[in-house]
Design brief:
Blueprint: E1 6-11, H1 27-32, H2 34-54, E2 58-63, E3 78-81, E4 84-87, H3 93-96, H4 99-111, E5 117-119, E6 133-136, E7 141-146, H5 154-162, E8 166-170, H6 179-182, E9 183-185, E10 191-193, H7 200-209, E11 215-217, H8 220-224, E12 231-233, E13 236-240, H9 244-252, E14 256-260, H10 263-266, E15 277-278
Parallel strand pairs: 1-2, 4-5, 7-8, 10-11, 13-14
Antiparallel strand pairs: 1-15, 3-4, 6-7, 9-10, 12-13
The structure holds arginine.
Length: about 290
């Protein structure tokens, strides 16, 4: 049985890689073959949409805006729960221009009855949306990354707005600049994560909350394949082309892994999860796993 996930995507017509705000970004590689990569991005996007549909998701696709190439990563545009959306505030000037077009798009979703409230963060707080604030449907709380992009104070802002527990996780490397690069709560209750991305205190707090048999450690190779940046819906997991190792681990646990070639988006430091924003998340938790 699948939860019927409703996912927002942003079409890649304005996508390109032309600045560097995370260590994965390769504008020089993009420039070598901009036209070819643009076509490839279009095909990768279509393949991602097809995989998500095949996994049972309902999709809403909006258009991006010229000059704002990273709008293809709507996970960073807001945090959504129970039809309420908290708009992101971006750390880097390169992405700040996305705030207005995204706010407009969310307002339209509100008028369409898909969202029922759109709210703004307190002044001075950076928070880069669901990319840094992942809802754990099994345990009924958010996990929030802070450090490279989102402020530590965003943890309280999200908790205040949603009235939910938010567990902070400090990101200590630039490669895992957003939590969704290195951390993924799977729909079956496991947490897939890359330990070196988190501070010692954050690893402790994760390990206190999630027993060992529910933790799946990703390797550096899995991280470099953007495999932790996965969309998990029911028993389906959609991700960029992964490693034999991780495919084996997930299959063994009863997941069906659907892989998509997302290499044009990896040149911007993104994978499957950050190209999506789930609009249907509800705060009712399913049964926490028993150890
Ligand atoms: N180039 C984008 C940035 O650095 C990629 C964002 C990917 N999003 C994510 N949630 N990991 O902001």
């Amino acid at each position: 049985m699948n939860e019927s996930a409703h996912i927002l995507l942003v079409a890649p017509m304005h996508y390109e890689v032309r600045y560097t705000i995370n260590p994965w970004m390769q504008p020089e590689r993009w420039l070598q073959d901009a036209a070819g990569l643009h076509g490839q991005a279009r095909r990768s996007f279509d393949a991602l949409a097809a995989a998500l549909r095949a996994a049972g998701c309902r999709l809403t696709v909006i258009e991006g805006a010229p000059g704002l190439p990273d709008m293809v990563f709507p996970a960073n545009a807001g945090v959504v729960l129970d039809g309420r959306l908290l708009l992101a505030r971006f750390r880097h000037a390169e992405r700040r221009g996305e705030e207005v077009p995204f706010a407009r798009a969310f307002e339209q979703l509100r008028e369409a009855g898909i969202l029922h409230e759109v709210a703004t963060l307190p002044d001075g707080v950076f928070q880069e949306g669901a990319g840094d604030c992942l809802w754990d449907a099994t345990r009924g709380h958010f996990w929030a990354g802070w450090g490279p992009r989102s402020s530590r104070s965003a943890v309280d802002a999200v908790a205040d707005y949603f009235g939910q527990t938010v567990v902070p996780l400090e990101l200590v490397t630039e490669r895992s600049y957003h939590l969704d690069v290195c951390f993924c709560p799977l729909a079956g209750g496991e947490i897939l994560y890359y330990p070196p991305a988190l501070s010692a205190a954050s690893l402790d707090s994760l390990r206190q909350r999630v027993p060992a048999e529910w933790r799946i450690e990703a390797t550096e190779d899995d991280l470099a394949h953007f495999s932790v940046n996965a969309v998990s819906v029911g028993r389906e997991v959609v991700m960029s082309r992964t490693t034999d190792r991780l495919r084996g681990v997930l299959t063994e646990r009863g997941y069906r892994v659907r892989e998509v070639d997302l290499s044009p988006f990896m040149l911007s430091g993104g994978g499957a999860f950050c190209m999506t924003l789930r609009l249907d998340r509800r705060s009712t938790a399913v049964q926490p796993p028993v150890s």
